[in-house]
Amino acid sequence: MAGKPLVGVVLGSASDLPLMGGAAEVLDSFRIPHETIISSAHRHPERTIAYAKAASGRGLKVLIAGAGMAAHLAGVLASSTILPVIGVPLASGSSHAANGLDALLSTVQMPTGVPVATVAIGGAKNAAYLALAMLALGDPGLSEKLEAFREVLRLEVEEKSRELFPGT
Ligand code: RP5
User: Fold this and answer.
1) Is residue 2 a part of any domain in this protein?
2) Does ligand 1 lie within 6 Å of residue 102's CB atom?
3) Ligand 1 within 6 A of 87 CB?
4) What's the burial of 116, exposed, middle or buried (CB within 10 Å: 0-12/13-18/19+)?
């Protein structure tokens, strides 16, 4: 999406891309400029910290971090910026033994004062919707679009109920 990015999506590895594509998809559908980079809390902590430190000055408003296994990416980003950081735990990597529970706990269990807003395992789309809700606080146009989107969800529920259970 063209324009100065407002949302930075950080992937712990190129192997996370297929699991995180939903975030860009949602941001694109609301025409929110965003960028994606690959970094790593463990393989390249310096790059991760430098990205987080520069983020606010570059105009980014929210960071989304997707990582699997011992997923400290979102936490390391949060250590180095006061921008809101949304963590997406992923069921990824060479070991599927924990099905993403390892990443969930690594992402969500942050020390007091340095929060990571953690979504569900594989919740890339919801990370983007949460980022949109944050951006909408200062953007009435986006706020209206989100309201309209929620109305579509409500109508879909009613429609599905009518279709499967006539008269409801
Ligand atoms: C994590 O380890 C990454 O976020 C990825 O989910 C997982 C495996 O990475 P690769 O070995 O596929 O690069 O740091």
Assistant:
1) no
2) no
3) no
4) buried
Q: Is the pTM of this model over 0.90?
A: yes
Residue 11 scores a pLDDT above 90: yes
Tens-digit pLDDT profile for residues 49-67: 999 999 999 999 999 999 9
Pair (45, 114) in one structural domain: yes
CA of 67 to the centre of ligand 1 (A): 7
Output the domain CATH number for residue 108: 3.40.50.1970
CA of 51 from ligand 1 middle (Å) equals: 19
Ligand 1 centroid–CA 63 distance in Å is 19
Backbone angles phi, psi at 21, to 5 degrees: -55, -30
Burial letters for 132-164: b for 16+ Cβ neighbours within 10 Å, e otherwise?
A: bebbbeebeebeebbeeeeeeeeeeeeeeeeee
User: How much distance in Å is there from the Cα of 16 to the middle of ligand 1?
Assistant: 7
